[in-house]
Amino acid sequence: MRTRWRLLDLPPLTAAENMALDAVLVELRGQGHSTNTLRFLRFRPASVLLGYHQAVQEEVRESYCRAHGIDINRRITGGGGLLFDESQLGWEIICDKAFFGVTVPNTALFRTLCEPTIAALRTLGIEASFRPRNDIEVNGRKISGTGGTDSDSAFLFQGTLLMDFDVETMLKCLRIPVEKLKDKEIASVRQRVTCLAWELGREPDCELVKARLVEAFAEALDADFVPGGLTAEEEDLLAQKLPYFQSEEWINMVRPSRSRTEVVQAARKSPYGLVRVTLQVDMVRNTVKDIFITGDFLSFPGRALYDLESVLRGKRLVPAELGRLVEEFFARGSICIPDMGPKDILAPLGMALAKVEIARAGIPLEWCNRINSTCASFAKVLELGVDALLLPYSAKDPACELRHEDYCTACGLCSVGEAWQLGLSRNLQLVCITNFEHLQAELVRLKASGCRAFVGCCCQQFFVKHTEDFAAIGLPGILVDIEDTTCYELGEENAAYKGTFARQTSVNMDLLMAIFAASDRLGGRKSDSRIERVNDRGREVCHESVQAL
Amino acid sequence: MEILGYNMPEDLYYDEHHFWFRKEGDELVVGMNDFAIKLAGQIVFVQLPYEGKAVSAGKKFAKVESGKWLGTVYSPVDGEISAVNEELEENPELINRDCYGQGWMYRIKTDDMSPLEGLKHGGREVLEPWLQEDIAKFAKE
After folding, report:
1. Which of A58, A249, A376, B65 could disulfide-pair with A78, CB 3.0 to 4.6 Å?
2. Contact status of A500 with chain B (Cβ, < 8 Å)
3. Same domain, A401 and A505
């Protein structure tokens, strides 16, 4: 039976007005008032809209939005944050649950409600398709997201349609991890999304798109759409609700204590390319909030990588479960990367997850990207017990007469002295490393002497370059980034290698102390018998031990 | 009790949205049933109202999010929230893993349990036709 629906197409409204109106429409319809409605939404000014349970502080760069007159508000539906600029078009179905004959939405209903948008896009020559659970894509690139909620006997189901897409502004408004990505990678993130303007190669005619949507919904729902305005009851309830939707109480309803987002990154270079995994994790809910897999490799089909990301998105932060999902994705033949297999994704993913584990050991996550471990995980190294601390000569004052000596008198004039003091107080073996060969010799000596594990300070690039060398020596250890400009950034790595780097770096003492505090918590106790302190020029030596690790 | 592939304990009361209610003294324990979980997929957020919040029979009092769907929880009785499962704040997936146990959501204190009589309750002869009907509805979609 053909039914009669209202077509509600109001002029652009503010975010608070649009959100309040959503609440009004679904609430009244849920009480059996008004009629089933197809509504179009436009926003003026541009607005950032959060999902119902998201926190503003977590998701939005408020100062940027304020400075650029962009509204911030919260949807009454779930999902993630998005930028609704003045060019975007939103659509909504507000109707009786009885119309669809169900009380709880299911995958099939989501699909049914996405079909009209897909059909409308096809009439415009765009090959759109459904992506479970409720998105619409064009060749793997998302063009429309949907979501919904209910109230008593009514559903509200809504979708966005990207008419044009202002990537730069979106990145500036929303706290998306791509801020940590390089330019090349931002371009690849851009490839995950598309819009009508890009697909058509010209600015879309909004009225035409609306007309096609109305036709497609009419066909799919077997309904006639009659343009109409708000009822008096809706107007009254809107006036009543609007102040709440404009209030801080609503906009800041969710505080970050209910979610804490952090970003970790790891990259691994194989002979066939670099694979970088950027993980946005919710530390409270323990889930993968978002993931970007990027790099200089090719994958087929073009959309496969985005599909893999969407398989992992929202999942729990359990390495084994995530690993299984990646393995299965490859096993199904859903992706093909020449000369690479699941392991090439799993390795950097595992490294990124290891950083999350470091955070769990009590190290602030913003520091976890400054920590690497060799021959064992971070937690394992601490569990084994740290017996030695290695410090870089480059952090000593270039004028210090001990700059190229393997010890320090802790005079207090540079960070090496502070670290040396910390090492003494913890009864560690201490060595100032003077060049790469010296480092190798010391690690070999420490290992042979029964040292269980070490903490060393060096720059990240040094570690990346010598990862294999550390692994070959086989002594478990934690490498902590040093601060300030390093030899690699200055192109002076050869000088540093030989021990003639002339500038001064510094040891990150806060991070070093946090690591030893975590070590105390994880219970890696000092072995007493094998190592004995000797007051030889302020440095420690150890008795050779026959007991190897 | 397994009915048509769903675990449906017979000591519980079920509302039309597939939430379950268990009487414990003058309290009702509330959660989502197996049918709802299988429809919803992974639960990503559960709104936890403050303890002492008044609830009314047939009225909504909280939201649950799965996928991008924000669902509603209705109280079958008049009363107040006497406890919420704080664990769900950090781990809403407990509902997926153990919907009748660790995944309980709220406790409602009430003086009047009589509205429960309007809910689905009983053995296979009551639950199976109801579930059968809902399975058919969802299959049709």
Report:
1. B65
2. no
3. yes
Asked if ipTM goes beyond 0.85, one says no
- Is pLDDT above 70 for A527? no
Say what the pTM is: 0.69
Judging contacts by C-beta atoms under 8 Å, the chain A residues touching residue B64 are none
Tokens of A508: 């990150």
Q: How many domains does chain A have?
A: 3
Cα separation, B91 vs A285, whole angstroms: 6
CA distance A97 to A112: 14
Query: Poorest-confidence range of A68-82, A362-376, B111-125?
Result: A362-376
Contact state of B70 with A152 under an 8 Å Cβ cutoff: no
- CA distance linking residue A523 with residue A528, whole number of Å: 15
User: Does residue A374 share a domain with residue A439?
Assistant: yes
Subunit contact A103:B16, Cβ cutoff 8 A = yes
φ and ψ of B111, to 5 deg:
-90, -15
Q: Are residues A216 and A272 in the same domain?
A: no
Nearest chain B CA: its distance from A12 CA (Å): 24
| Ordered alpha helix ranges (H), A332-410 | 342-360, 365-368, 378-384
More confident residue, A536 or B87: B87
Distance of CA A264 to the CA centre of its chain: 7
Measure B38 CA to nearest chain A CA, in Å. Answer: 9
Chain B hits for A148, Cβ within 8 Å: 68-70
Check CB contact under 8 Å for B69 and A148. yes
CA dist A16 and A49 (Å) reads 10
Least confident range from A148-157, A224-233, A269-278: namely: A269-278
